[in-house]
């Protein structure tokens, strides 16, 4: 009888130890699951000013596929939609781009390069989404064109003209795009014009060789510049008339089709035409630094 009680005690202790081990293992696995960090986070701006915050996660190694079968993806994505919903979707097999879907595939999130969309019950509810670059601290506003496939950030107070067309090359040579004009307060009290000074993103379709020379008069000075890992074809031009000065700098991106370029336009007036002390010289360095930050925020989607 005493031996039997001893065995039962030992058995109970073993059960407690086993339960503690599995509890510890389960908590450890849960902690590992909840503490995993995403391999990337991307903010998307979509048509209708809708937004998507996406956190991409890698998964465990996929099992070896059977002969003739594609490898099964094991990643996932966590989405925060601007309508207040939060979704977690596993990655699924896709012939193009990266596809995530719930079990019955009523919700599908598809990302390809810098573009994305959400499909719900075979209808796109978040469409024309383009990735946004992070705000460096002074570019709180964002614009995305899902049709043309680009996004860009810009400072508060800038005015947007989505019907902008560059017309200085003459009739029939207009270049379409979007322009961001400085706020009038930036020019007040200086010899800078707040009417047309700003930055534009322009596109020329059906180009085989995207160069800055396509955006300016023949004979403009051009050079190749690499900035922030992007190679540009850069052209500069200047003009003057009736006490006005016009400076343009075009940053075209070789290899793009349509050919994409960012144009800086600075319109100023001759400060010596004013009474002494009436206006001050505008801060060219500060203005160009701001234009550079806008250009660097440009993201192109496929």
Brief overview:
With 302 residues, the chain is α+β, with helices and mostly antiparallel strands. The chain has helices spanning 2-34, 184-187, 284-296; strands at 40-45, 51-57, 76-81, 86-92, 98-101, 107-112, 115-120, 123-132, 141-145, 150-154, 159-161, 165-166, 175-181, 198-204, 221-227, 230-241, 244-252, 259-269, 299-300.
What does the model show?
With 302 residues, the protein is of the alpha+beta class. It folds into two domains: 40-61 and 71-132, Lipocalin; 141-300, Mog1/PsbP, alpha/beta/alpha sandwich (Protein Transport Mog1p, Chain A, 3-Layer(aba) Sandwich). Helix content is 17%, strand content 40%. The protein has helices at 2-34, 184-187, 284-296, and strands at 40-45, 51-57, 76-81, 86-92, 98-101, 107-112, 115-120, 123-132, 141-145, 150-154, 159-161, 165-166, 175-181, 198-204, 221-227, 230-241, 244-252, 259-269, 299-300. The longest helix has 33 residues, at 2-34. The radius of gyration is 29 Å and the shape is elongated.
Radius of gyration: 29 Å
> What is the residue-mean pLDDT, rounded to a whole number?
87
Low-confidence stretches: 1-5, 10-35
For the largest beta-sheet, the strand count, sense and barrel status come to:
8 strands, antiparallel, barrel
Order of helices and strands: HEEEEEEEEEEEEEHEEEEEHE
Structural class: alpha+beta
What general form does the structure show?
Answer: elongated
* Helix content estimate: 10-25%
- Report the total helices: 3
In what order do the strands lie side by side in the largest sheet?
Answer: 1-2-3-4-5-6-7-8
Tally of strands? 19
Distance between the termini: 80 Å
Assign the CATH architecture of the largest domain. 3-Layer(aba) Sandwich
CATH fold-level assignment of the largest domain: Protein Transport Mog1p, Chain A
How many domains? Answer: 2
DSSP strand content: 35-45%
CATH superfamily of the largest domain: Mog1/PsbP, alpha/beta/alpha sandwich
């Amino acid at each position: 009888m005493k031996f039997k009680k001893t065995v039962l005690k030992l058995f109970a202790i073993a059960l407690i130890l086993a339960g503690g081990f599995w509890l510890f293992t389960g908590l450890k696995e849960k902690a590992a699951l909840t503490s995993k960090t995403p391999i990337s986070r991307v903010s998307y701006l979509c048509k209708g000013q809708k937004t998507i915050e996406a956190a991409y996660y890698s998964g465990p190694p996929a099992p070896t596929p059977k002969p003739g079968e594609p490898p099964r993806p094991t990643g996932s994505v966590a989405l925060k939609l601007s309508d207040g919903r939060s979704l977690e979707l596993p990655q699924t097999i896709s012939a193009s781009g990266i596809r995530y879907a719930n079990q019955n595939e009523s919700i599908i999130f598809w990302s390809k390069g810098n573009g994305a969309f959400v499909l719900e019950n075979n209808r796109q509810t978040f469409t024309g989404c383009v990735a946004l670059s992070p705000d460096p601290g002074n570019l709180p506003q964002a614009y995305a064109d899902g049709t043309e496939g680009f996004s860009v950030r810009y400072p508060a107070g800038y005015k947007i003209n989505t019907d902008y067309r560059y017309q200085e090359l003459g009739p029939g040579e207009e270049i379409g795009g979007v322009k961001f004009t400085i706020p009038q307060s930036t020019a007040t009290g200086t010899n800078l014009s707040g009417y047309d000074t700003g930055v534009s993103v322009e596109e020329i379709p059906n180009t085989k060789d995207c160069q800055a020379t396509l955006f300016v008069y023949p004979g403009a000075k051009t050079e190749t510049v690499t900035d922030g890992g992007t190679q540009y074809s850069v052209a500069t031009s200047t003009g003057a008339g009736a006490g006005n000065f016009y400076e343009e700098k075009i940053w075209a991106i070789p290899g793009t089709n349509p050919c994409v370029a960012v144009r800086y336009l600075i319109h100023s007036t001759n400060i010596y035409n004013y009474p002494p002390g009436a206006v001050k010289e505008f801060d060219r360095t500060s203005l160009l630094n701001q234009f550079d930050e806008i250009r660097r925020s440009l993201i192109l989607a496929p």
